[in-house]
Structures are given as structure tokens and as C-alpha cells.
Amino acid sequence: xxxxxxLTGAGRAIAIVLGICLAAACFLWGYSARALxxxxxxxxxxxxxxxYAETWDTLASSPEQARAAACGQYDENxxxxxAQRPVNxxxxxxxxxxxxxxxxxxxxxxxxxLELASRxxxxxxxxxxxxxxxxxxxxxxxxGNVRLEHLPAANLDPLSDNSFDLVxxxxxxxxxxxxxxxxxxxxxxxxxxxxxRLYVDNTDLESDVxxxxxxxxxxxxxxxxxxxxxxxPATAAELTTYxxxxxxxxxxxxxxxxxxxxxxxxx
Length: 267
Fold this sequence. Notes:
This protein is an alpha/beta fold and 267 residues long. The chain contains eleven helices and seven strands. Helix 1 (10-29) packs antiparallel against helix 10 (208-221) and helix 9 packs across helix 11 (236-246).
């Protein structure tokens, strides 16, 4: 999920940086300059980095804004088109079987879930934003093998141990505090079954695009509090360390600019 604030005061400087990030990443997540030009995003300068629920509920105040916050597109066909690359990455690198119980953490409007649900036994989407989940429910209407659940906090406490064969997160870690990133990986280990697979992607600090977005933030945002939605890149070493410490094996980092992708297996 991604968004910008109203272009006033600190928001103007922030939006400049985010606009640069947006242009660089648009081919990947379907982000478009339309997200900057045509949506009157509410001001979010009063929210801190970990105000996840309030941030995304505010940005998803209508179905149109929810779709735009998720991928920069309002039109349903374009939302679906924007999902193709992450769906291909997940299916190629982590795999998905018709017998799998699949969990997406931070499912947003079910941009990816709508494409994967038909390929697995059951797809479950969880999110901290009730407004995002409401939009997801509308998009998934008619599918019999899907489940949505609201997360009261940045963890998977409501979910049972050993319940899933595949857990994935895409276009989500960018917006999280580093400790919350690790917590989700620890929780993913708990809810996965033996031999269950993990997939995580994030903007890669070591890629040219990831570094440009980080460097532009340094140049522009040093005098401002970091907003709740500002993407923060990661490195392969960071994600690999989280997975190793959580107990995963067969950990691999894949560099697909501008992404770093982590895959791992629960032994």
C-alpha cells in the first residue's frame, strides 16, 4: 500500500520524494502519476510511523481511494493488471498448489488474493485496516474459498499455529517499522506447517531504484518527521537475518530490481 499526503508544508516536501519513488516503481506495483494528480489525499502529518491502522483506514475512506492507495489505480481492470508481476514472482519463487492453505499478510484490497484464490485450496487475507478489508470483501464476492480477518495489532496473534502451507507478504514491509517486520516473520513461522513456504518482498536498498528513493529522502526529509506511509527499503542481509533468527531454513534472497525477495522453508 502506498500513498501521499496533501501538498502543504512538510507534506509538499514528502510528496516530492514520494513522487520520485512512485515514478521509479510504477512498472512493478502498478503505481501511476494519477495517484499524485487526481486523489485528494487527507493530511497524515499528525500520525507516527506505527499508526498503521489509522493511516490506512484514512487512506481507504472509499473503495476508489482504497484501490488508489493500494496500487495507484481506480479502474478494476488496471488494478488486476498491476497484480501480474507480484503474482508471477510468488508463483515462480514460492510456488502455489491446489492443496495449499495460503495466507497473505497485509492483503489490502485483495489485489493479489483475487488472482491467487483460484489456484489454492483456501486463501486467507489479513490486514490491520478495516476499510481495506471492506474493499477486499467486495472484490472477492462470489469466491467460496476465501476468508478475511482483521488484525487488531501488527501481529498474527488471532491465527492458529500450523495452519498454512504458504505465507506471503508483498508491497507491505516497506511501510513497517523494522521490529514489526521481524515480528511478522516470527509469526509466519508459527502459523506455517512443517515444510511451509515463506515469501517476502521489499524495495531493495542495494538496487539503483531503492538507493535513489533512500538518497532523495535524505536530501529532502531530514528536517521532517518520517510519515507513517513513507516506504523504507531493506537489504537481503536484513531479511535473511530475520528469517534465520526465526528458525527458517533453505533461505534464499532474490534480487529483481527494484525488489529484494526472500523465500524460506519452515523445517
